[in-house]
Design brief:
The protein is mainly α. The chain contains 11 helices and 5 strands.
């Protein structure tokens, strides 16, 4: 073991590479502590958010019928009533996870993209099943989603969810704005753990590499 550490110490590029790798790994682990959901999220992002607007799951079908009975003109009001808005880290542990409509219904909570997917699926289902002429589109802003709904019967275009104001939209386009938004996605205690582990890990790494190298 000491020979391996000595070998690493004598090559600066190995020392730097290993330290960078460890810090990246720790950052990913704190952001995505559930590796199974992390891999699944990569797959869901690869197929696109529109592919997740599914309407055939029995759990969703039951929910959609209840929403239509609750308010035929504005069935999305049933989502406001029954689904809480929470961050992904509060629901799934990971900082980001796109949920299918039935997953959001089962957990009774979702963040902006989860609610957008569920709402779009609801409009799609009601249009196909009950003939209500809804046209919907998920609008993506920096780190945010909302649904643009066009009710052709009433000739009205409405926004479901919160649309980011132009001033805030521009701020989020900047590196500082994106970093701030990312930090806000996790609770302070998670970042405290990350910083504590980062300091401890780098300290131990430094001691292990340099103390043995100097003595051996």
């Amino acid at each position: 073991m000491s020979n391996l550490i000595r070998f690493i110490r004598r090559r600066w590029y190995l020392r730097v590479s290993i330290m960078i790798f460890m810090n990246i790994f720790l950052f990913i682990f704190v952001s995505f502590p559930n590796p199974v959901l992390f891999i699944e999220q990569l797959h869901r992002q690869s197929i696109g958010i529109d592919s997740m607007i599914t309407t055939d799951n029995p759990i969703f079908v039951k929910f959609a019928e209840e929403a239509y009975k609750y308010n035929k003109k504005n069935p999305e009001m049933y989502i406001y009533k029954t689904i809480k808005e929470k961050r992904d880290c509060e629901i799934y542990g990971n900082i980001e996870y796109w949920a299918y409509p039935h997953e959001t219904i089962e957990r009774g909570a979702g963040d902006c993209e989860d609610l957008s997917i569920l709402t779009s699926a609801l409009y799609k289902y009601i249009k196909e099943k009950h003939g209500r002429a809804y046209e919907e589109k998920i609008i993506r802003q920096p780190l945010h989603f909302y649904v643009l709904k066009n009710d052709t019967i009433r000739n009205r275009t409405e926004i479901y969810g919160w649309k980011m104001p132009e001033k805030e939209f521009k701020r989020y386009l900047s590196p500082v704005g994106r970093l701030t938004a990312y930090i806000n996605e996790l609770p302070p205690w998670r970042w405290f753990i990350y910083l504590s582990l980062t300091i401890l890990m780098n300290y131990i790494y430094y001691i292990e590499i340099y103390s043995i190298g100097e003595n051996g």
